Amino acid sequence: MRDIPLTQPRHVCTEAADVALIEACIAALPDEAKVRVTLDDGSALHGTVAVRPSAQVFRTADGEEGINAVLRLDDLAHPEQAHYLWLDQVRDIFPLGSA
pLDDT, tens digit, for every residue of 42-67? Predict the structure, then answer.
């Protein structure tokens, strides 16, 4: 599983539709939610949301402003393992319920 460098996203969302997807992901990831996330490479992670992600503003190489956000997901099988994921790479979020 790839954990990403947190300094700069590989993609900055500037189009309205992409920004709306980031915002929808944020809304679907409340604090301490247990979820399965599927990434754009087809891999999936099961974990607990450490804290709801928040949108961050970045600039593209051309100077255009856009957003992205980082999700910290604590692995369900190995809670000591935290995965850090850029939300633009998340394709699906499935709530696993409580417990």
Answer: 999 999 999 999 999 988 878 889 99
CB 20 within 8 A of CB 33: no
How many Å separate Cα 71 from the centre of its chain?
4
Report the alpha-carbon distance of residue 30 to residue 50 in Å, rounded.
Answer: 9
pTM of the model: 0.85
d(CA 79, CA 69): 22
Separation of alpha carbons 16 and 73, rounded Å: 26
Give me the sign of the Cα torsion angle 76, 5, 92, 57: positive
Question: In sequence order, what are the beta bridge partners of 57?
Answer: 67
Two structure tokens written together for 92: 């699906």
In sequence order, the β-bridge partners of residue 34 are 48
pLDDT at 87: 95
